[in-house]
Specification:
Belongs to the SIMIBI class G3E GTPase family. ZNG1 subfamily. With 359 residues, the protein is an alpha/beta fold. 29% of the residues lie in helices and 22% in strands. It has two domains: 224 residues, P-loop containing nucleotide triphosphate hydrolases (Rossmann fold, 3-Layer(aba) Sandwich), CATH 3.40.50.300; 119 residues, CobW-like, C-terminal domain (Hypothetical Protein Yjia, Chain: A,domain 2, 2-Layer Sandwich). Bound molecules: guanosine-5'-triphosphate.
């Protein structure tokens, strides 16, 4: 017997271009879940699953879809397997969130959900995160982002702290100009009201006739041609090293990164440069930030990076990174000075204000 709608678990797709703040928003939801049990599926682009590593404090199960972009899957069987696990009676989830890769075609994910044989789930809506600071440039390069926004049920205009009032208003207008009828909320660091995911915007009470996409909508909206998918123009490079990186060489690499290299994320081990911390690294467009965190006692010390861009020379980037490794590192003054270059970009996790600069 098919469970009643109220018994079905809503599955929300969390989408948004590379680096827009999906993982940050997801972590915010997990920290402020008000007793709700949230299952998470992370779909990462790039062979090291950085996002799965950065989703903190999970409740219930987390499964990661691993390398590659889910929207390329010819059928939904892989996703269905994960959903079966998450909807098992013992797991008792209230909502499942699928964090799509920054290059995924969200409509494809939604189509897979609608086509799923799993009768314990229902489609819970599409949330599109928009980086308010990068959107004008990204939209110009990728007009197809308009299609993603049009398909969304909720648009989160994120990184409001990085833009002025008039810039934010312009982005808001650009979102409306795509023809989107979605609710728009503004946020810094993804701090939206978690209730938005459950109720009322995406919840069971809303008037589904108004916005929830039908299969026909999706077929019409979805570029049938795989060539038009965002990720076809992008390439990812994974880099992993047990040898620490030299801070000076690595910063020189970052400072001269090619324009097409839009996104870098991962963790860096600077070895004797800072033996106590691993450095989470995020670069999005022209933005760069490090967040140090103490190594845990049994943690294997490694650098793990994923670089994503278009028109990049993967082999050359890999070589340049390999040249940043420092086999014979000593705690010298030069190394300490090299770390200053890194510390200039250090931020507190999720933008929490750091200690004041002075008295
Ligand atoms: N200034 C500012 N930075 C933010 C905000 N939200 C997220 N970030 C930062 O933006 C970077 C990317 O955030 P993520 O949450 O990893 O973005 P993502 O969309 O999951 O990235 P991909 O999975 O690579 O597509 C991180 O350094 C975040 O700390 C915000 O509202 N303001």
């Amino acid at each position: 017997m098919t469970p009643s709608r109220a018994q079905q678990i809503p599955v929300v797709v969390l989408a948004g271009f590379l680096g827009s703040g999906k993982t940050t928003l997801l972590n915010h939801l997990l920290r402020n879940r008000s007793g709700n049990r949230i299952g998470v599926v992370v779909n990462d682009f790039g062979s090291i699953e950085i996002d799965a590593m950065t989703v903190a404090g999970q409740v219930g199960s987390t499964v990661s879809l691993g390398n590659g972009c889910l929207c390329c899957a010819v059928d939904a069987s892989e996703l269905d397997g994960y959903l079966d696990t998450l909807t098992g009676p013992a797991v008792r989830l209230d909502v499942i969130v699928i964090e799509a890769s920054g290059l995924a075609e969200p409509q494809e994910l939604v189509r897979m959900l609608l086509a799923s044989d799993n009768d314990r789930i229902r489609y819970g809506g599409l949330v599109e995160v928009v980086d308010a600071a990068e959107f004008p440039a990204t939209h110009e390069r990728h007009p197809e982002l308009g299609r993603h926004i049009r398909a969304a049920d909720l648009v989160v205009l994120n990184k409001t702290d990085r833009v002025s009032g008039p810039e934010l208003a312009a982005v808001h207008e650009a979102v409306a100009a795509t023809g989107s009828r979605a609710a728009v909320v503004r946020s810094a660091y993804g701090r939206i009201d978690p209730g938005l995911l459950f109720d009322p915007v995406l919840g069971p009470d809303r008037d589904e006739g108004v916005r929830q996409l039908t299969f026909e909508d999706l077929l019409r909206e979805t570029a049938g041609d795989h060539e038009e998918h965002l990720h076809t123009a992008y390439e990812s490079v994974s880099f992993s090293s047990g040898v620490p990186l030299d801070p000076r060489r690595f910063m020189a690499f970052l400072d001269s990164r090619p324009q097409g290299l839009y996104r870098i994320k991962g963790y860096v081990d600077f070895g004797a440069g800072d033996p106590d911390h691993t450095y989470a690294l995020h670069a999005v467009g022209g933005f760069l930030g490090f967040t140090p965190r103490p190594w845990t006692r049994d943690e294997t010390r490694r650098t793990q990076l994923v670089l994503i861009g278009s028109g990049i020379d993967a082999e050359a980037l890999h070589k340049e990174l390999a040249a940043c490794r420092d086999e014979r590192q000593e705690p010298t003054e030069a190394l300490e000075r090299g770390m200053w270059g890194v510390l200039r970009y250090v931020r507190q996790p999720d933008g929490e204000p750091g200690p004041p600069d002075g008295p």
